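I am writing to request your help with a piece of structural work I have in hand. I set the record out below, with my sincere thanks for your time.
___
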Amino acid sequence: MVDRAIEDGTGSEDVETSAKRVGSPRLKVETRLPTPAIAKMLPIGGLEFARPDPELVKRLSDVSSATASAVMHRMGVRQTFIAGVAPRQPGAKVVGPAVTLQFLPKREDVVAGVAEGMAEEQVEKATALWAVFETVRPGDMLAVQASGDLHTGCMGEMLITYFKGRGGVGIVVDGCIRDWPHVQAIGTPLWTRGFTPNYASQGTLFPWAYNVPVDLARVLVLPGDIMIADDDGAVVVPARMAPIVLEQTLDHEDWEVFSRMKLAQGGRLSKYYPLNDEGRAEYEAWRRERT
């Protein structure tokens, strides 16, 4: 009788009577989830961070993601390429300091605490998703931790429009965005795993924190790090390493110009790529002639 009453919604008195008869506690349905204290602390905002010298960022615009990745690998920093994130505007190349957004798995009791008293469509305004865009400055890139999730639409047309309006230059999402047909018209360079029709809080993730360390495809990105993104993908350059990376990458790309020229003329691969001692001597002489 208890099971049938529960299933068809009839005979509430029978349910209570039957529960007492079998020694069970009175059945009770909770309509409001108890919420953890941390829900009232969200969104979590990171500390103020220093952005790199704009002149340094400008000079890094001549450095490709491939060269930056290779140079940092030789320097001992080996997890800098954000794998699985594809360029969505062929030919786009952007370099800029990172502001960060962190999505974590959604848990309904936490969301209930954040959303208390709000209409569903207003909930995202109380999260890190809205807060991070208010910190964007001209030249910034947005790095989004979404754990490779293919269901959650981390942002869409309106937020990306606002990002561009504040001077943001590019967005890297380890996950998906929505409104792709409209977003294409905005022209903001994007690197994502894909697209989804779902809005941010409709999926399995929740915007938790902003301008904190984030994990993009097992690559650590700190606020203020420099991101280099082009047709090969997106790479993060640790902020304090950037001047060294710049010096070494410009030298690397310069000798590649020389090597490319020699290989096109039929020069020996073993001599010119990478340069052996004889090839390096020729390169140094060639460089002196150009200066």
Notes: Confidence is low (pLDDT under 50) at residues 1-22, 24-30. The CA atoms of residues 41 and 188 lie 32 Å apart.
